[in-house]
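Page 37, continued from 36.
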């Protein structure tokens, strides 16, 4: 067993006071030594959290103890070090950016468990549709899957016409952990697709439970691992180095912060280019120091990691003052 775990999850369940819950949630993570990226929105939760096995177990129990999130499914992976360097618990409008006019709690594609998904892979009537961004499926995707040249899910409406002729086929959508498919599959149904499914738990769960057969390449993840192996049955490499064009499944972020493109670049080229994706980016004044990983901690955007703790202390202080004044 490795010393750390990485847990990936989402849950669509209404949250009324997102700011209050953000503070409570953040305090729990701080007190239990957890790092990661968690989004809280009126529609639910979405997070990837890393910590010791014991602390991750406490976190999962904390989520399940809340009746709103009792049905949350966790994808659990082992890792030799923390998968994050910081903790961010943020309030946003959606738990996955989409702007799609759908509600997964009302209607979404039929969930396929990993074993059932595997059984359908060789069905000629099944069409696999990748709902991830272009840089994600560049480094890994299912054999024969349809991919879109889109940078995020908000662009899906611009690409639906590409599969318009498949409306009467059995459409199976997939993504990293399943969250994008909840809205993407619902949107396809709204657009007249008649038989829509989604891989429940996404690529990660399929790899953990079924060995990842027929997933080519690696799976892009949003932590400092950048990519992870999924297929232990028939693995292959499908991407090539952006610089030398040799086979390469090692993803990096361009060292130029203003570029920050996600690209496959081999170790040799990355060292020569100092982590940059082009000569222009290598010479750019905004180029970050390349440390050999190609992963850079995101800026905080004025987010204060101890905001929740400060809010709690302020509330306690105000409460005590009110008690003194009323005495």
């Amino acid at each position: 067993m490795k010393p750390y775990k990485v847990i990936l999850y989402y849950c669509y369940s209404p949250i009324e006071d997102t700011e209050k819950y953000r503070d409570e949630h953040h305090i729990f993570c701080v007190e239990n030594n957890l790092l990661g990226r968690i989004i809280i929105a009126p529609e639910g939760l979405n997070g990837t959290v890393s910590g010791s096995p014991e602390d991750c177990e406490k976190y999962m129990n904390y989520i399940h103890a809340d009746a709103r999130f009792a049905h949350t499914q966790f994808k659990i992976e082992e890792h030799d070090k923390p998968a994050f360097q910081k903790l961010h618990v943020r309030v946003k409008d959606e738990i996955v950016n989409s702007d799609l006019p759908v509600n997964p709690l009302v209607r979404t594609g039929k969930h396929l468990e990993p074993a059932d998904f595997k059984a359908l892979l060789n069905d000629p009537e099944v069409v696999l549709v990748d709902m991830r961004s272009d840089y994600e499926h560049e480094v890994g995707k299912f054999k024969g899957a349809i991919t879109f040249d889109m940078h995020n899910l908000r662009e899906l409406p611009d690409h639906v016409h590409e599969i318009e002729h498949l409306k009467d086929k059995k459409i199976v959508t997939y993504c990293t952990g399943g969250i994008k498919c909840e809205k993407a599959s619902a949107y396809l149904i709204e657009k007249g697709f008649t038989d829509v499914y989604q891989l429940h738990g996404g690529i990660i769960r399929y790899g953990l439970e079924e060995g990842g057969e027929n997933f080519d390449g690696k799976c892009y993840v949003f932590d400092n691992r950048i990519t992870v192996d999924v297929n232990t049955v028939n693995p292959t490499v499908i991407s090539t180095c952006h610089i030398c064009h040799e086979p390469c499944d090692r993803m990096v972020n361009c060292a130029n912060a203003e570029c920050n493109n996600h690209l496959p670049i081999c170790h040799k080229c990355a060292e020569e280019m100092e982590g940059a994706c082009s000569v222009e980016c290598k010479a750019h004044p905004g180029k970050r120091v390349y440390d050999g990983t190609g992963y850079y901690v995101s800026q905080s955007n004025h987010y204060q990691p101890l905001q929740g703790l400060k809010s709690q202390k302020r509330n306690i202080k105000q409460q005590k003052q009110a008690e003194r004044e009323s005495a």
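Residues 307-326 form the longest helix (20 residues). Flag for discussion at group meeting. The mean pLDDT is 92.
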